[in-house]
Amino acid sequence: MKENTPSDETKLFTKKVSRRKMLKTAGVGGIGVVIGASGIGGLLTLSDSRAKGQTKDIVPFYGAHQAGITTETQDNLYFASLEVTTDKRSDLIQLFKDWTEAAAQMTAGNLVGEASLNANMPPKDTGEAKELSPSNLTITFGVGPTLFSKDGKDRFGLKSKKPAELNALPKFPMDALEDSWSGGDICIQACADDLQVAFHAVRNLVRIGRGKTIIHWAQTGFQRTKQADSGKTTPRNLFGFKDGTVNPDTNDGSEMNEHVWVKVGDGPDWLVGGSYMVVRRIQMYIEVWDRTILKEQENTFGRHRDSGAPLGMKNEFDRVDLEAKDSNGNQIIPENSHMSLSRGDGKAKILRRPYSYADGMDPKTGSFNAGLLFICFQRNPSKQFIPIQERLAKNDKLNEYIVHRGSAIFACLPGVKKGGYIGDSLFG
Amino acid sequence: MKKAKASLAVLLSTSLLFGCAQENEGTKPADDKAKEKSVSKLDDVSREYREYAINEIEEFVQATEEFTTAVSAGDLEKAKEVYAPARMHYERAEPIAEVFGDLDPKIDAREGDVKDEEWGGYHRIEMGLWQENTTKGYEKYAKQLMSDVNLLRAKVETVDVTPDLLITGAVDLLNEVSTSKVTGEEDRYSHTDLYDFVANVEGAEKIFELLTPALKEKDAKLAEEIQQRFDEVYALLEKHKEGDGYISYTDLKKSEVKELSQAIDALAEPLSQIGIVTEES
Ligand code: HEM
Domain range spanning residue A113? Predict the structure, then answer.
């Protein structure tokens, strides 16, 4: 009886699985199936942490702002827009508390929930991220306008708290929006350097929300991996152009304060430190693009394809002079180019954080179903995204090759301190 | 029809794995009593469930009698009328019925589940009734079906209902809904899938009902949540009622199918936690 001493066994477990609890569970011998066949192996590897001793590749979860906004863009995205199905405010608050706890666990590279030894219950964590590194996972939560009121109904006593800026985006010319790719009460943006880690995060959060929320739409996104581009040059989108050259500097706090973070006086105080996220699911007609001559391609963006330099210049980060003329007196960068129009007078800036998507084939046309999940953050959508997109929708040369299929706006909640929960400023 | 599943788990005694813990030894007598109590309570539940399931199978025999008699007599209308309600008894008792891995495919296989020349049972006849609009040529399947169902009735007496079977059975019933009823693949000629759907949910609810007292002792909130989710599923199903039965599955809108599917997910998630009743408190 003593050969297999409990103290030896105890060492194998971390604090999360208390020994007492284990013995209790294992004690129901009469029923038998408490420890399943696979449980034996599982027991010996039970541990808090997914990949032992990992401290690298962790983006802190707690802080003044949520991670995943100014965080250096990770390789992969899994984005979910949810509908809330419960009508109880208390359910919603509990959900955000549970989500906060799980998100803090997962971003630190840990499993969700306490490991249970009861083989008569499904495991708390779904398991596919076991052994995987934290992969710089960030989980960013946002709330959409319909959470505050839907069909005129004040669903959770939040109507009076709705920011004036948080409205479904206006209809822009050329929009071909589909309901099945638009809107949402809550969004979860999971970014990580591994798609399986990102998916695991959303999957577990959706599971926790089951019965209270349902998925409205979801999208995976990718860009080139850091492995494939160790030089960390600007990533290219599916049109082959460097995308992200001009963007506010996320390391510059004052620039972030000016363009990204909601400040006192901008609207309701609960959102101070948060940010408005605009999401557009933009299909790209890549077959059409591929048969477009290089000159046209470059005129479309106003930049050279290879170098990413402004037309007429040599290097990617060379100064942009929209008025520059060639020897014949013609404007070098076309007025209807994407860069010219999106820049405008250069005052309104947005923090772009887009990902490409490729969802197989469009069964209607036989073409690739691919494009850009355009995501951007800002302090004030009516002064930033909306006027920019108004200009683009009217005149952008790029419109020949793209179509906007989905649209959503969310107020990304401020960051959370240890002991608090995401959304506490809103519900508190 | 259900694919055979590997047996659940191996039985391991506590001492084999952990040795005898000191703390445990000290409190042994009281512990043992508590253990006996909780085990015997679950045994009672198992007995009650056994009665319920046998009763459903009994009714299934009678309903199948009516069905096969109609087929043999060439009464197409009657056969179509009793087809779906008869199957409900089987679907409610599925956790028990499927224990007999040899009989389940004979009774409930769908086209393609088994070799064509072996294919018989309810769905074979369903194809004749709805697709070919006839009973002709299906008399032999009716005869075989009746004898298989009678055999099931006899065998079911021998089944040993364990708490494990209950715990996995409840969620399994809903998984059946998620994987085959929701897609409309179960009754692909008659489109009476909603009957099977309802019966699976009712079968799961019966198990939950029997385990509720034990569950309430462990986690009253969980019991409450599960009940609420059952109510939500029934409320959705209610919308698709027509007379005594249910509308054709093909009349459901895509959005309604999705709604049903998500409601089942919302129910099955908390229901999957009922294994907690096997823990000591
Ligand atoms: C599929 C759709 C899109 C593609 C392929 C695309 C691609 C690009 C590319 C290649 C650049 C130039 C390089 C750079 O500065 O990053 C650029 C710049 C930019 N884009 Fe887009 N973009 C798309 C949609 C949008 C949308 C919807 C907006 C906002 C309404 C937007 C706003 C901007 C801005 C503000 C710049 C920087 C302009 C500057 O000041 O130089 N883009 N985009």
Answer: 8-144+183-233
Give me the number of domains chain B comprises. Answer: 1
Write out pLDDT tens, residues B272-281.
Answer: 999 999 887 6
Phi, psi torsion values for A371, nearest 5 degrees: 175, -150
What domain count does chain A have? 2
Please tell me what DSSP assigns to residue A74: P
Cα of A248 vs centre of ligand 1, distance in Å, is 13
Chain B residue whose CA is closest to A20:
B23
Residues A257-289 as b/e (b if ≥16 CB within 10 A, e otherwise) read: eebbbbeeebbbebbbbbbbbbbbbbbbbbeeb
What residue type is B106 in one-letter code?
Answer: K
User: Could you give the CA distance from residue B67 to residue B87 in angstroms, rounded to a whole number?
Assistant: 10
Whose Cα sits closest to atom 9 in ligand 1? Answer: A243
- A3 within domain boundaries: no
Which of A3, A18, A28 would best serve as a mutation to test chain B binding (most B beta carbons within 10 A)?
A28
Q: Give the predicted TM-score (pTM) of the model.
A: 0.85
pLDDT of residue B279: 83
- In this structure, is residue A155 part of a structural domain? no
Task: For residues A177 and A229, state if they share a domain.
Answer: no
Shared-domain flag, residues A273 and A216:
no
Asked if residue B16 is part of any domain, the answer here is no
3-state secondary structure (DSSP) of residue A344: coil
Domain of B72, CATH number, reads: 1.20.1420.20
Q: What is the pLDDT of residue A117?
A: 81
Question: Of A208, A264, A247, A265, whose CA–CA distance to A91 is shortest?
Answer: A208
Residues A280 and A213 in one domain: no
Q: Are residues A221 and A175 in the same domain?
A: no
pLDDT tens digits for B110-126? 999 889 999 999 999 99
Per the CB < 8 A criterion, the answer to whether A226 and A232 are in contact is yes
pLDDT at A44 over 90: no
A202 and A177 inside one domain? no
**Chain B: nearest CA to A8, how far in angstroms?**
9
H/E run at residue A357: strand A355-361
In tens, the pLDDT along A101-148 reads: 999 999 999 999 988 788 889 999 999 999 999 999 999 999 999 999
Determine, yes or no, domain membership for B24: no
Residue A374, ligand 1, Cβ within 6 A: yes
- A404: in domain: yes
- Supply the range of the domain harboring residue B78: 39-278
pLDDT in tens, A245-283: 999 999 999 999 999 999 999 999 999 999 999 999 999
Is A89 found in the same domain as A210? yes
Chain B environment of A6 (Cβ under 8 Å): 18-19, 21-22
Mean pLDDT, chain A, integer: 89
To the nearest whole percent, how much of chain A has pLDDT over 90? 83
Is the residue at A173 inside a domain?
Answer: yes
Q: Roughly how many angstroms between the first and final C-alpha of chain A, as a whole number?
A: 55
Residue B13 with chain A: CB contacts under 8 Å:
29
Q: Residue B195: which of B106, B53, B112, B83 has the closest Cα?
A: B83
* Whether residues A75 and A173 fall in one domain: no
- Cβ-proximal residues to B57 (8 Å cutoff; 6+ apart), any chain: B89, B90, B93, B96, B97, B152, B153, B156
Collapsing DSSP to helix, strand or coil, B120 comes out as: coil
